[in-house]
Amino acid sequence: MEPIAVISIFVLAVFVGFEVVSKVSSTLHTPLMSGANAIHGVILVGAIIVADHSSTNLELGLAVAAIILATINMVGGFVVTDRMLEMFKGNKK
Amino acid sequence: MSRTLYDLIGLAAGVAFILALKGLSHPKTARRGNLIGAFGATLATLVVFFYTNPGSSLPLNNIGWILGAMLIGLAVGVPAARKVEMTQMPQLVALFNGVGGGAAALVAIVEYLHLGNDATTAEVIFTVFTVIVGCVSFSGSVITFMKLQELMTTRPVIFPAGRFIIAATLASVIGVGGWVVAALGTTPLLILAGLSLLFGVLFVLPVGGADVPIVISLLNAFTGLTVAASGYVLDSVLLIIAGTLVGASGTILTRLMAEAMGRSLFGTLFGAFTAKPQDASGAAEERPVRSGSPDDVAILLNYARRVVIVPGFGLAVAQAQHTVRELADLMISKGIDVAYGIHPVAGRMPGHMNVLLAEANVPYDQLEEMDEINPTFSQTDVAIVIGANDVVNPAAENTPGCPIYGMPILKVSNAANVIFLKRSMRPGFAGIENELLYDPKTMLLFGDAKASLTKVVSALKAL
């Protein structure tokens, strides 16, 4: 990828990231942290890519460990966030 | 699948993550936001299985290993997320964050081994960054987990010359990082990983218990940045977008939390390095306190016009959320004005108490935030503090130099009467003595919060 494209994506994403959470109430800090946490579990995609082109046992072993950890991060993160938010919803009335 | 289609789907997943964070910022849209995020992540994961990397073919190599590892991850992650007690939420978030950081570091190491001498300098620099920050996030999160789970002391761990050891470790991390960039090689990279893990431990050890949530949030942002760096090395737009989003929003969230706690971020992270070890015992243990019976409490409540309940982590530990709601309902039926005063960091994490009370179906409109409730304490007859301590401790206002000095507190001392439900005279999570306990208008009711509340409820019913 062109370095300038990478830098552009990075800078724009920084501003979007700042903007979307700038006015969140403290009530939602815990679920928001947990939700953001789940999003970086998408490193699973990277783990699968490196597992695909692993050529030695060492590489494959490390890649498999990365897939396990990333799956826990991603799936566990979304499930636990949903559990928290489900309770908030029951309260709205 | 063509590269263009693959990248477009990745972009769609990135947009889903933006919508997820946006949704999570408002109570009404939060759950939908999270589901959009989960959808984006699922889409991104599925599509990898259908894209052929140059020089590769479908199905993916090692597909059995890949699917097997994912199944193990599911088998560990889903039950952990389903079964965790709401009181243990901060630990779980810390742990999930740590494994994410660990995964990013491992991905970077594998890619480095794979590229060997073909790696460009830029790729090596990003790899070094990912390994350092991913390892720090992993080992730091494990230490925060142990602190929150109380597997180790929650007080700041300060050792002689700690500052110099930490500085020296950081310097060697940077030095070895430079060595990897200059010389390439597997051994220096593994040394770098080891030193970074050590630095993560040293970095979190001096942080006091009450500040741990801020550190979790910061490490969360760190992990996001490692994912973005991996995105550059692996040529994935999606990882760059997702990682940067989490890095940026995590940084803002960390700052917001620090503000809610009245802490400067810098002070939280580096304050403990310069602080002297706290005198843990204090001279206060022998002083008299006024303790009462459940009947005394019931009588006091019966003649009150306005009561404010201040719940703390002890309430949740005793699983007394339902009993406290029963007490509140009973008081309301007697015509008493009842509100809950919620400190932003009540519990172990900002917003944690709202989650815990929501679990017990406490109506939203009875929960008042600190800024709303504080001016009303002077018109309040009774403030009941249940299992909370640090968030009502006047030391935060009048004792410069104490670890919580500067944290905004709930000013329960302005109420006509204060009742503390406590298990013992043990100080709170931050480990600081509370002067309010010795105030003449304070009454203490010792015992398990749930048992005490049940007795108060039946005593109040009998009146």
Automatic annotation (TrEMBL), chain A:
Coiled coil: none annotated. InterPro entries: NADP_transhyd_a_C (IPR024605). Residues 7-89 form the NAD(P) transhydrogenase alpha subunit C-terminal domain. It is found in: Cell inner membrane. It is a multi-pass membrane protein. GO terms for biological process: NADPH regeneration. One of its GO terms (cellular component) is plasma membrane. Keywords: Cell inner membrane, Cell membrane, Membrane, NAD, NADP, Translocase, Transmembrane, Transmembrane helix. Its EC number is 7.1.1.1. This is proton-translocating NAD(P)(+) transhydrogenase.
Automatic annotation (TrEMBL), chain B:
The keyword Transmembrane helix applies. It comes from freshwater metagenome. The transhydrogenation between NADH and NADP is coupled to respiration and ATP hydrolysis and functions as a proton pump across the membrane. Its EC number is 7.1.1.1. It is a multi-pass membrane protein. Residues 8-458 form the NADP transhydrogenase beta-like domain. One of its GO terms (cellular component) is plasma membrane. It holds the Pfam family PNTB. Belongs to the PNT beta subunit family. This is NAD(P) transhydrogenase subunit beta.
